Structures are given as structure tokens and as C-alpha cells.
Amino acid sequence: MKSGMTIHALGTAGGPLLRRGIANGHRRGIATAVEVDGHTYLIDCGHGVGLGLAEAGLAPTSLRAVFITHQHSDHVIDLNSLMVLGGLAFRGKPDLRVRVFGPADRGALPEVQHADKDVEVIFPQSPTPGTAEMVQRLLQAHATDLNDRRRDSGAPDISKIFTGEDIEIPAEAGYHPNDANHPQMQPFEVYADELVKVTAILVQHRPVAPAFAFRIDSAYGSVVVSGDTAPSQNLVRLAEHCDLLFHEAIDLEAVARSYPNATPAELEASMGHHRRAHTTPQDAGAIAQQANAANLALHHLVPAGSPAETWQGAKEQFGGNLFVPCDGDSFEINAGVVSHHENG
Q1: Among 54, 98, 119, 233, which is 20 to 30 Å from 159 by CA?
Q2: How far apart are CA 300 and CA 248, in angstroms?
Q3: What are the distances in angstroms from CA 149 to CA 90, 141, 146, 159, 225?
């Protein structure tokens, strides 16, 4: 079994669009795997996560836990395929389990941000399901397949392998999905085993709530994944003195150009969201500098096809090592030393 700590950039593009060619920088949807002594901890399940795991040589059966930063589709869309297709690899391994941690039921719909206030609620019987309910619903939607395969060829009961768990935010944080979605708080533990400790904190991805960043500490070092966020002092606190910070980045000028047919009101509504909920490369560099992170890697790139020099703007604020990994790149951490390995 492989020893050490390796972070795999399985997918580095942000946003819900289905495109992977030159326009998207040949990047898959967002997903990051942390491998420690042969066991895998996965953060987010963007489009193509299963293929990313396979190309990295990470078997589904190496998974111990999955952590969902928030429930935007580009972060969870392939949780479905990971469980239903990846679950078949668990044949003959009845004792293995994969815990899926993520946001609880929001408890309230977000406030309408645009001019049209008459917005019909989709699935009003459960409009904001949490992670536990989401996992159950995804698997239930495939009950025909799961039952057929189990009865025909003895496939494993995937509903018992993958279990969703809602992250409980400490009451003292004073969190409220609309009124206080990003209160100043301390990191809190969400998972631990003999290899890692995983802590989380709320970040600012308005109107999404809750939205988490995660930190994974092992005997070899530490990595922090920001999730989607505007500049956040909570994130600075979580990332303090980490060995490697993976932070999202957005090219606001390029995003504005991607709405050529929008009316001024439509453009302002879209750009208002991006400004409220995301981070420029320069601001990501400032956050890494404030946190005294040793290394910064930009991912969840929006638009993912922006030229490489765009992301180098982080160097204006950050004095450490800056990386802009491609899909399949990896980082080894050992005693606080980070080594970058390019795919291929």
C-alpha cells in the first residue's frame, strides 16, 4: 500500500457548463482527492470525477469519505455516478463504507436577488434537501438498476455502502442561511480517523448556504480546499500556516464578456452574483498571504479557458509558491515540503 500524502487535482474547472475542449481549457468539473497511506478522501464531485479517479489510479474502494463544499450542481453532479458505477467495485468487500458529508437542509429558501420577485418554488415538498436526503434520493432514483444487478448477479447493496451525513454547524457560530450565512467563527471538526483530521468552516458564497471550506491534516502535512467563496476571513483562519491552499479564482472581465446578448439588467444580475460569491486571483493571493500558507494552487477556474497569465495575478499579493494545476496534476506533501507533479 502506498504511503505518504498526495493531493490529486482531478478536475479544475468551475461552473455548470458542459464543455471540455479548448474553450474550457480541457478541464473537467471541480474535484480534489487527498490520498493518505493508500486511502482516499474526496472533496467535491464535479463532472468527470469518476474518470479523474481512474486516471489517478485511485480505486473507488480506497474511498473513506467524500466532503461536499456546497450543493451547486458543478460540485455534486457526478456524486451520482461515483456511487452507482463506482459502487460496483465493492463486490466482495462487504465491510467497506464511504461516508458522504455535506450541508444540511438549508431550512429556508434564499431571498430572490433579481427583479422578478414572482419565482415559483421547484419541488415545494422539499425545496432545500440536505446531503443525507440527497444521497438517498440519488440512489433511490436508480432502484431499478440496483435491484436488477443485485438479484441477477449478486452486486453489492450500494445503499449500504454510501451514506449521506449532514454537517452540523456549531450553535455558537450564530449561523442563519439568510441573515447570517457567514458569521465569524472557529474551525470545527467534521471527521477523523487514524490517518486524518478534517475540519470545516463557513465561507461566503451568497446566496448559497451553508458553504464550507475543508482542511485535511495528516502526519505528513496539511491541505485546505476553499470551496466557492468571496474573500473570507473565516478561510484565512482555517488555512493558517497550511502547507497547500487550493483556492478558487474567477476572471471577472472574461466572465462579463461571456454574456454578449444580455440586457444591462441581466448582465448586472449575473455579474452581481460573481462579485458577491467568488474571488479574483489577486484576492486569492492576499488570502494565502494573510493565512501564511506555504503554497497556493488556484483551481475552480472561471472561465477555465482564460489565458495562463490571468491567474498569475495572485503573485501580486502572495510571496509563496503559486501553482495553476491542470487536471491530473498532483502534489506530494511530506514534512511540510510540497512537490508538484504535472500530469503526463
Answers
A1: 54
A2: 5
A3: 13, 15, 5, 13, 36
Q: At residue 320, what is the residue type?
A: G
In the predicted model, what is the mean pLDDT of residues 169-176? 97
Pick the closest to residue 214 from 16, 29, 57, 30 (CA basis): 30
pLDDT of 112 reads 82
Alpha helix segments (H runs only) across the chain: 49-55, 73-76, 79-84, 131-141, 143-153, 158-161, 233-238, 252-257, 264-277, 281-290, 308-311
Distance of CA 19 to the CA centre of its chain: 19
What lies within 8 Å, CB to CB, of 15 at 6+ separation is: 74, 302, 303, 304
Q: Describe the chain by its helix, strand, coil percentages, rounded to 5.
A: 30, 25, 45
- What does the pLDDT average to over 148-157? 94
User: How confident is the model over 19-26, as a mean pLDDT?
Assistant: 65
Cα 240 to Cα 292: distance, rounded to the nearest angstrom: 6
Give me the residues paired with residue 162 across strands: 98
Instruction: Give the distance, in angstroms, between the CA of residue 232 and the centroid of all CA atoms in the same chain.
Output: 16
Contact 208, 260 (CB under 8 A): no
Three-state secondary structure call for residue 274: helix
C-alpha cell at 325: 494545476
Residue 229 pLDDT level (bands cut at 50, 70, 90): very high
- Flag the least confident range among 71-75, 117-121, 305-309: 117-121
Q: What is the DSSP string of 251-269?
A: -HHHHHHT-TT--HHHHHH
Per-residue DSSP letter, 320: S
| Largest CA-CA distance found in the chain, in angstroms, rounded | 60
Cβ atoms of 297 and 311 closer than 8 Å = no
Where does residue 138 fall: left (phi above 0), alpha (psi -120 to 50 degrees), or beta otherwise? alpha
What sign does the dihedral 11-162-131-215 (CA atoms) show? negative
pLDDT, averaged across the chain:
93
Give the pairing of strands 188-192 and 162-166. Answer: unpaired
The answer on pLDDT for 249 being more than 80 is yes
